[in-house]
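Q: Entry one of two.
A:
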Amino acid sequence: MRDTIIRFVSMLTIPILLLLYFTFFAGNRGNPFDEQRLPSRPPQRIISFAPNITEILFELGKGDNVIGVTQFCKYPPEAAAREKIGGNVDHNYEAILRLRPDFAIILREQVDVKPFLDKHSIRYITIGSESVGEIIDAIRLISKATFVQEKGDSIAQSLRRQLADMSTIAADTERPKVLFCVSRDDIRSGVITKVFAPGTSSFYNDLIKAAGGVNVLDDVEQPYPVISAEAIIRLNPDIIVDISASYLRPMPEAVRGDWRSLKNVSAVSTGRVYCLSGDYLMIPGPRFGLILEDLRSIFAPLPDAPVQDVQ
């Protein structure tokens, strides 16, 4: 049965670039403003512990106050020039102290950072990013903490409007079954073995629904289970979206070629396997609207056509 072919993966088996986003802890989401150590005055020297946090800060116009970021913070381009404070889990605490921050923003799951920040009296807040709603809440919370709440409310309202408009457009169209591949093994091997795909507790699931699709794993609560080729055949998606090229940088043709090994899957036989590339695809931040637009362009009714890429 289905339970025998879907296995759940630990964070250590996922590529390091994905650790930050694809190993969320399913905790109490609650009110994003509860139990937060909000600063009493506008912070001047901010440390960001994740790329999505960095993007939110720059979107809010607070980029000049960002003094430290992770090595994976590449957008916007000026963020890459900021001092580095380590990676996703290997934080450089000496570098952080040298930067003399007066405020830090961390992900909810980065609990290991809290004792350090408490010890050195560095105020901080935590954000979640497991769903589109949490991303929007994070924008509002960070805007409040940095004293630009009006700007944050405006961005949040714009994103909600985009979601609502997209959902309205998609409401009257046929909803295809979608497999969204965030990562997989053996790329360029010519076969599909293990695929990491979002379950219902992921922001990708929210975007698939808003764009007019049905997640083939809509009954799997885990955020990012790993499924086998046999499971994909049984699920038989109408559309496959593969974003492997967005972080491993293989040629799209190589990504496409692997999927042709599953010729009996509807998405493959009808030529509806899509390779997406772009740094925004991996980051649960304010650019999720770009992912939404990509998905809607794919889900819109189309005649049968060769497998294609969206750059």
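Q: Entry two of two.
A:
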Amino acid sequence: MGRPVQHKQKAIVLALLAAVFYALNVPASKLLLEHVGPLFMAALLYLGAGIGVGALALLRRNKREQSSRLSREDMPFVLGMIVLDIAAPILLMLGIREGTASNAALLGNFEIVATTIIALVLFHEAVTPRLWTAIAFIVAASIILSFEGEASLQFSRGSLFVLAATACWGLENNCTRKISSKDTYQIVVLKGIFSGLGAAGIALWAGEAVPSVSFMLAAMLLGFVAYGLSIFLYVRAQSVLGAAKTSAYYAVAPFVAAFLSFALLGEKLSASYLLAFALMLVGTVLVMADTLARRHTHTHSHTFVHVHDGVRHEHTITHSHEHQHYLGGGPHKHGHVGTFLPAQSEHKDCAGSLRHAGETRSSETLS
């Protein structure tokens, strides 16, 4: 019991560190976008991530088991990850350029909604009522942040770009989840290099101006920290927590990024922003509370045997119940589900009798 809890706690720390590193992305990118185009900015961020983590892989040259490396069966998820990672940062850079960094930072939390719904629909991950409540708060906050005002009755272009980026990353998170047990270095290097080259190709095709070397290096350094190290820690956490759960802890990133936007860029606080901030905070707290929940499922099977008119009958009843509580104590609940299996018969010459065969099986899962 101790080791799974320790693994989960370590994964939570990694997810939070990943969020803090990524939080640097929005305010720093806002400053760099004054000198670098959005397409090249997206390319340089991922190239910096891929090259930086590739260098770390060379420095830490311990051979991993061959089974941990990506295989041919993983290629559909790898290709999906790369294509989505080309589109998402371009959309985000366009959103940051069109709107405020603080709004873009908070809207990043919509990634939780996209990741969770895709995890539910495509990959059948469990979504609790508490998580649905959190999603409702986050969606409401996202609408407030995206709305330009009562007079226009329109959504801002910048916000729509950011929401499109989070939807891409939500699907990408689930693609990465399918390969998160494989070599983390290999995943991040492939993600960074090929997504960066793809975005750079689009930038050249679109005729965007090539930035100076100094700004290219600055953007790549930001990419190494905000994307490379962040992705690396995220994938490590995701292999333990799952896509929906890891994105829950990652939700602190927008709040850190919003604070940095105000501190570094001097952006003003509006009434709608403060309302959205409060709703987003409630949603995030609910998501994190759900992530901390620990569930145990126990299954018990009881076999009843009796002989009637010379025929031996066996009846098996299976009960399963779930316990949910929190690290450090808290709520506890359980329910029972009974399954009655069809009777099995066997001819046997003996007097009628009834006995209980005490066969019990139990299983425990930690989520």
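A: Comment on entry two: Confidence is low (pLDDT under 50) at residues 319-367. The longest helix spans residues 213-241.
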